Amino acid sequence: MPILGLSILVQIACAVHCVRGHRNSMWLMVIIFLSLPGCLAYAIFEILPGLAGRREVRMARATAVRRLNPDGEVRRAREALEVADTAANRTALGDALAEQGEWGEAAVQYRAAIARVPGGGDRAAQLRIARAELESGNDKAARALLEALPPSASGAETDRAALLLARALEGCGETAQALALYEDLGRRMAGGEALCRRAGLLMSEGRRGEALEPLTEVERRLKRLDRMERTKDAQMYDWAVRTLAELRAG
Question: Which entry of 42, 99, 110, 193 is 20 to 30 Å from 93 by CA?
Fold first, then answer.
């Protein structure tokens, strides 16, 4: 009986999906008369292709592929580089290494890439190097690169570079400048990274009371973030929620 009940529920769900989606009416016959095999066929040919284009599904699939074969992208990028030592292939290898957290080697590949481009590469190439240097702990090198970046017509790109610069300033001990930049970016950028970094720096400076305001704003923004955005930065947001609760309790 439980299996029969489950089968009926699946059939109803597939039938409703078929009618609401204005699918071919022949699918209703397949769903009704073939029961679970018919529902499985409907899911394979009508539901899954529609899901494949969704951002959430693409991200989940990419994550699964990386977990099953974590070195696959790096290996393919190295093979492409052996075939043709071009700036594009060097950059692709750098990106694959960065995805693996190999930021030091990624920086080497990015620098090799811009060495093959007349003029030393564009803003995007310089930004890649700056981030790789920052993530590998070379705050001074990252700061110098970020401060020398040419202007961008994109406000979002300018803000992303400014957030990296704030992190580099923090790493260089320029606390006041970093806090001012985090505060400015926290008002403009979506999400909560600038706010969380500002709160973390305030707390490390012993200014716990001042961290309450940015963390409260993070809490407010969390209610409007979609699940994928929250999952992507889950560790950061978990820290923000825990820290805010501790500040309120203490």
Answer: 193
Q: Is residue 156 part of a domain?
A: no
Residue 57 forms part of a structural domain:
no
What percent of the chain is modeled with pLDDT above 90? Answer: 58
What percentage of the chain's residues is helix, strand, coil (to nearest 5)? 80, 0, 20
Contact yes or no for 164/130 (Cβ under 8 A): yes
Predicted confidence (pLDDT) per residue in 154-187, tens digit: 999 999 999 999 999 999 999 999 999 999 999 9
* Number of structural domains the chain divides into: 3
Whole-number Å distance between alpha carbons of 215 and 207: 13
- Does 89 share its domain with 14? no
Identify residue 48 by its one-letter amino acid code.
Answer: L
Q: 180 and 119 in one domain?
A: no
Helices (H), 69-204: 72-83, 87-99, 103-115, 123-135, 139-147, 155-171, 175-188, 193-204
How is residue 118 annotated by DSSP? Answer: T
- The C-alpha atoms of residue 63 and residue 60 are separated, in whole angstroms, by 5
Whose tokens are 């959430």? That residue is: 56
